[in-house]
């Protein structure tokens, strides 16, 4: 019973993420960001269709919405099953956009998401070929200590694929 109510609530949040009301979108992405910290919730959130709308919001012009979306995607990427769905949602380019344009926290979380996704071999190739390396290098030079750590970890994972070593 409780699980069904939670799932219904998450479905409502996913619908709200698609709203035309900025305030509604902000509130929904903020709540999804918090809920996605829990591993059990990550599976439910993904199964309710949240990944694709959150990836779309990585290009939001509203910084709060974008920061919440990138953090929610980062939290969801902890689950290996979700990594596949995040990649299917064509997330690399929007994550690079966040790396290049936004707040330090959003940039750090985009870098952390890329390193989380790069755990899978096939993702290393796609990330390496995407132009993400240049954006990561820029964050390495101008980021916060946490951001630089996330970039270093991303480089560690990405460098294990031979094609990425020359980039």
TrEMBL record:
ARM repeats lie at residues 49-91, 90-132. The keyword Transmembrane helix does not apply. Pfam families: Arm. Transmembrane segments: none annotated. The keyword 4Fe-4S does not apply. SMART domains: ARM (SM00185). SUPFAM superfamilies: ARM repeat. Keywords: Repeat, Ubl conjugation pathway. This is Uncharacterized protein. It comes from Chenopodium quinoa (Quinoa).
């Amino acid at each position: 019973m409780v699980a069904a109510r939670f799932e219904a609530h998450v479905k409502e949040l996913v619908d709200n993420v698609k709203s035309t009301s900025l305030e509604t979108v902000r509130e929904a992405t903020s709540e999804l960001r918090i809920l996605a910290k829990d591993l059990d919730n990550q599976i439910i959130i993904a199964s309710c269709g949240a990944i694709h709308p959150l990836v779309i919001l990585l290009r939001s012009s509203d910084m709060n919405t974008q920061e919440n979306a990138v953090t929610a995607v980062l939290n969801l990427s902890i689950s290996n099953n979700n990594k596949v769905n995040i990649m299917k949602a064509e997330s690399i380019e929007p994550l690079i956009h966040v790396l290049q344009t936004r707040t330090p926290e959003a940039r750090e979380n985009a870098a952390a998401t890329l390193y989380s996704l790069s755990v899978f071999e096939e993702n290393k190739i796609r990330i390496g070929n995407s132009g993400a390396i240049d954006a990561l290098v820029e964050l390495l030079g101008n980021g916060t200590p946490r951001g630089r750590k996330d970039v270093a970890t991303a480089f560690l994972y990405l460098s294990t694929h031979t094609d990425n070593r020359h980039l």
